[in-house]
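Side project, low priority. Logging it here so it doesn't get lost.
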Amino acid sequence: MLTIKREQRMIDADISYQVIINGINMCTLDNGQIKNLDLKNGDYKIKIRSSRFVSIEKIFSLTDGSHVEFICKPNYKNTKLSIFIHRVFKKNIGIDLELKQDIYL
């Protein structure tokens, strides 16, 4: 089981996040939303994308009885300078994607 939580933040509350797994758009996360995805056992790559920014791609594995949880949130300030810096100097990386839990039962 894979759980993806989007922290509720005012900074980009009106922007939806796309959850991309192995290059496929799996679901949309709105501000403060949690999604559970039942994926087959295997190795996966996940990243989050919005109309403004993307996250760094993360690798994770699922096996029988495992539960992996990620939390995502914006990592920029809602100023023109911060948005410019993230787009130009940080290669459009403006979303944090953090592995919060990785349990194998």
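Brief comment: The two ends are 12 Å apart (CA to CA).
Revisit when time allows.
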